[in-house]
Specification:
The chain is 51% helix and 13% strand. The chain is an alpha/beta fold and 277 residues long. The protein has a seven-stranded parallel sheet with strand order 3-2-1-4-5-6-7, sandwiched between helices. It binds nicotinamide-adenine-dinucleotide. Nicotinamide-adenine-dinucleotide binds next to helix 2 and helix 5. Keywords: Oxidoreductase. Belongs to the short-chain dehydrogenases/reductases (SDR) family. GO terms for molecular function: oxidoreductase activity, acting on the CH-OH group of donors, NAD or NADP as acceptor.
């Protein structure tokens, strides 16, 4: 069966869909005939992106706020029908030395990247279980299977998303609902601006992550790593004795990529956007 046949008519909600990976995914799914809703905390960006791509529903959504999230899902179901797929994509990645991270930023990373995913999963799963059908796709990161200086809290948040998603998959086995994690490598979006890609690993394009998500919806599986090469390198590093794996990661430049090697000027606009409340 072709991707169009599998995806046409499906109601898909994407959080943080105003730009980057979320918007690329919305665009890909829309072109295959899905009914796509994007929600984002950035009102101007979500309205511009939603109308430019002629998406089926778009509006403000704060994934850390249960009232906002519930209202958004209710509105989507009222206008488009039962939600088939929820993609918990909203996330932020402030970089820097851990001791310099203000508590407010630590809370914000965990609120959006972890609580937002847990909240969205709970709200969608409650609805999907009644229908014995649905798919929850959580955007984690290869940072969820590794440890990268300059990203301690972000790493923790993505490790949490992977553990959470795997646990739901087991807890709701046989329920008719599927659970998947997506693990992108560094990807060319505003989130990665000014970051030097570690050696060997070219950055991905958001369209490549979107393509992997389309593949997941067509044929659900627990995890997909993108790019394939970066995924293999991460798995090899993890399979090695810890000291050897860490030394290999350092030799590829991961120790400096999110600290000394950051182009501060190029990254400034992103850091300002995610650090303001
Ligand atoms: P991005 O900054 O381009 O887009 C993220 C979107 O999330 C933004 O539009 C932002 O306004 C929105 N958002 C932030 N807080 C929100 C909230 N509280 N409620 C709703 N929306 C909110 O980033 P991206 O690169 O497209 O990242 C998307 C996801 O992919 C994130 O979870 C990120 O951690 C993950 N990821 C990104 C990369 C990368 O290198 N770009 C790599 C691995 C994983």
């Amino acid at each position: 069966m072709s991707a169009v046949t599998k995806i046409r008519g499906k109601v898909v909600v994407i959080t943080g869909g105003a730009r980057g990976i979320g918007l690329a995914t919305a665009t890909a799914l829309k072109s295959l005939g899905a009914k796509v809703a994007i929600g984002d905390i950035d009102k101007k960006a979500v309205e511009e992106s939603g109308s430019a791509r002629d998406l089926d529903h778009y509006g403000v959504l704060d994934v850390t706020d249960p009232v906002s999230f519930t209202g958004f899902l209710d509105e989507v179901e009222r206008t488009l029908g039962p939600i088939d797929v929820l993609i918990n994509n909203a996330g932020i990645m402030p970089t820097g030395k851990f001791v310099d991270e203000p508590d407010q930023i630590t809370h914000r990373i965990l609120d959006i990247n972890v609580y937002g995913v847990i909240l969205g999963s709970k709200l969608a799963l409650t609805r999907m279980l009644l229908r014995r059908s649905g798919h929850i796709i959580n955007i984690a990161s290869l940072a969820g299977e590794s440890h990268i200086p300059g990203l301690a809290t972000y790493n923790a948040s993505k490790h949490a998303v992977l553990g959470f998603t795997d646990t739901l998959r087991e807890e709701y086995r046989g329920s008719g609902v599927s659970f998947s994690s997506v693990l992108p490598t560094l990807t060319n979006t505003e989130l990665g601006s000014g970051v030097t890609t570690p050696k060997i690993m070219r950055p991905a394009e958001p369209e490549e992550i979107a393509e992997a998500i389309v593949g997941l919806i067509c044929a659900p599986k627990p995890k997909v790593r993108v790019t394939m090469v970066a995924g293999i390198i991460a798995q090899v590093v993890n399979a090695l004795p810890e000291a050897v794996g860490d030394a290999l990661a350092r030799s590829l430049g991961s120790g400096r990529a999110f600290l000394d090697d950051v182009d501060v000027e190029k990254r400034k606009a992103y850091e300002e956007r995610v650090r303001k409340d």
